[in-house]
Amino acid sequence: MDIKSLAQVSNRESCSPSARYRDTADLLFAGNRESLEEKDGVQAVVYLRRAIELSPDNAKYFLLLAYALFQLGELSESARNFDKSICLEKNPASIIELKRLLFSAHHIYASEFLQGSHAPERQVFMAAAVDLVGAPAASVNILEIGSFAGSSLITWSNAAEKLLVGDCQIVCIDPWGEFRADLYNEKMTKSMKDQNIYQIFCHNASLCPDNVQVTPIRGTSREILPTLDDNKFDLIYIDGSHHYADVLDDLVKCDRLLKKGGIVCGDDLELQLTQCDRAFVEKHKKSDLVKDTKSKKDFHPGVTLAVGEYFGEVSSFSGFWAMRRGSDGYEKVSFVDATGVRPPHWPQNFQDQITAYFEQHNELGKLI
Questions:
Q1: Are 141 and 188 within one domain?
Q2: DSSP bridge partners of 322
Q3: CATH code (residue 60)
Q4: What number of other Cβ atoms are within 10 A of residue 334's Cβ?
Q5: Each residue of 320-329: pLDDT tens digit?
Q6: Which of 133, 322, 329 is nearest to 233 (CA)?
Q7: Listed residues 59, 77, 104: the one ending a domain
Q8: Which residues contact 4 (CB under 8 A, 6 or more apart)?
Q9: Do residue 228 and residue 127 come from a single domain?
Q10: Is 110 part of a structural domain of the chain?
């Protein structure tokens, strides 16, 4: 049955795909198409697997399954299905090229969302922090708490490639595991439980430039930070659990790890403590994201309270915060003489948002 005939049948039957698509490979393939159009990759995989059971020599089905699995972050399984499609196809050159293109590019989407997409300009400030600590250093050591799928890792490595004269070592701490997934917000928890995020992270890490070495450490920051050496890092980025106790613990434990002149920074400081009703912040310090009663803005109360208690007022740029370790404690950071780098792995609509932001805010020396 062709797609036109399928449409005629669908007009007479239930609008549910499961009611329309029965046990023929063509119909199941059509179900895959509809699922992809509805951005339901999981259901598309279900239809394609069943289609392959009924038509195990169809290279097209294996190819589409490989692509759907890649989009879902199931990279190992995707590669296996690409290889099956290549073996079945008489002229597989185009499939080989598609596989090469996909697996040689960064994978930045996880569980149908892009990490950090709510404020893409923060990626530029992250790169600018690399510029500040890298200027006097032959090599730079970065510690990242909360790496997830590696979108921020790509930002660090891209900045290191463009701005540093020497090597860059990046240590990434993350649970990457179901039993600790509740440290994250709902979307991230879903992704962690899918067990695909570490695959995506490792894929992205494998694409880092030659001057960047990545060391992933699986575990919570509470477990891992005490095992790291004193005065080890030039730059520490905190973006793990947003609960107050966890953020404060990260700040306290990172103090001995940061070199003099180094920068400690983090994400998700939409409001500083002085801008909020402290009683409200205290009440919600174990929440991930809430709406502030004064400003009506969404913010992370655990981050606001921990950073405010530990430092007081900090340098803050669209939710990205930073402080530099001086000889007598911590001091604010300015990026007016720093170079920020666009995240080239992000789609054009986010690039446009970044351009618009820096056209309106004079907070950066140079944007490349």
A1: yes
A2: 265, 315
A3: 1.25.40.10
A4: 16
A5: 999 999 988 9
A6: 133
A7: 104
A8: none
A9: yes
A10: no
Give yes or no for a contact between 21 and 27, defined as CB atoms under 8 angstroms apart: yes
User: Over the stretch 78-92, which tens digit does the pLDDT of each residue have?
Assistant: 999 999 999 999 999
CA-CA distance, 88 to 63, in Å (whole number)? 10
Residue 109 within any structural domain of the chain: no
Task: Tell me the residue range of the domain where 158 lies.
Answer: 116-367
Please tell me whether residue 229 adopts helix, strand or coil conformation: coil
The rounded average pLDDT for each run of 10 residues, N- to C-terminus, in the chain (368 residues) is: 32 35 45 50 84 91 91 89 95 92 81 69 96 84 94 94 94 79 50 70 93 95 97 97 96 97 96 94 92 90 97 96 95 96 89 94 93
Q: Where are the beta strands (DSSP E) in the chain?
A: 109-110, 113-114, 140-145, 168-174, 212-218, 233-238, 258-266, 290-291, 298-299, 315-317, 320-326, 329-332, 339-340, 366-367
CA 278 to CA 166: how far, in whole Å? Answer: 44
- Integer Cα distance of 180 and 199 in angstroms: 17
Amino acid letter for position 153: L
Contact (CB, 8 A) for 273 and 248: no
Q: Which of 51, 79, 104 is the last residue of a domain?
A: 104
Pairing of the two strands 168-174 and 140-145: parallel
